[in-house]
Design a protein that fits this description.
Keywords: Membrane, Transmembrane, Transmembrane helix. The chain has three helices and seven strands. By secondary structure, the protein is α+β, with helices and mostly antiparallel strands. It folds into two domains: about 90 residues, Beta Barrel (OB fold (Dihydrolipoamide Acetyltransferase, E2P)); about 45 residues. β5 and β6 form a beta hairpin. The longest helix is centred in the C-terminal third of the chain and has 33 residues. The radius of gyration is 29 Å and the shape is rod-shaped.
Length: about 140
């Protein structure tokens, strides 16, 4: 689940150590000097491999951050970058939406059960009305 959307603008002054995974590059620290002179340090940041190509020391840009509360991912994720003279670029890999995909699948299964039960009961009732065997059993019982 994603919460706490945030935008930080400034010049990237430092990119810390990073570990590359299949989905993203995980930085230990990113330091940004904002226009007002304040330096912001962001720790434990994940960025997709696609957006990592645009992340360079000395570039002035806007970083769009979102905080994820997922046990498998880092707490912060850069989901968009806007540099000078370019449109904003955004990307969230599908693995960050696994929980959402799971809920959709569960919903489809539940919808299947909800639709299947009344239809199957109706078909059973219809078959019992037209079945010769059930008519014969009723005749033998005396109803």
């Amino acid at each position: 689940m994603a919460k706490n959307f945030k935008k930080i603008s400034g010049i990237i002054t430092m990119l810390g150590n990073s570990i590359a995974t299949n989905l993203a590059k995980n930085y230990t620290v990113i330091e940004i000097k904002e226009k007002n002179g304040r330096t912001t340090t962001i720790q434990n940041v994940a960025i997709s491999s696609t957006l990592d190509n645009y992340l360079n020391v000395g570039d002035e840009m806007e970083l769009y951050l979102v905080k994820f509360y997922d046990k498998a991912s880092y707490p912060l994720y850069i989901y968009g970058i806007k540099t000078e003279n370019k449109e904003p670029i955004g990307f969230i890999p599908s693995a960050f939406s696994k929980q959402k995909n799971g809920l959709i699948i569960i919903g489809i299964i539940m919808l299947g059960f909800i639709l299947t039960m009344p239809i199957s009961l109706y078909l059973f009732w219809l078959a019992s009305k037209k079945s010769n065997l059930i008519k014969q059993m009723k005749a033998e019982v005396g109803q």
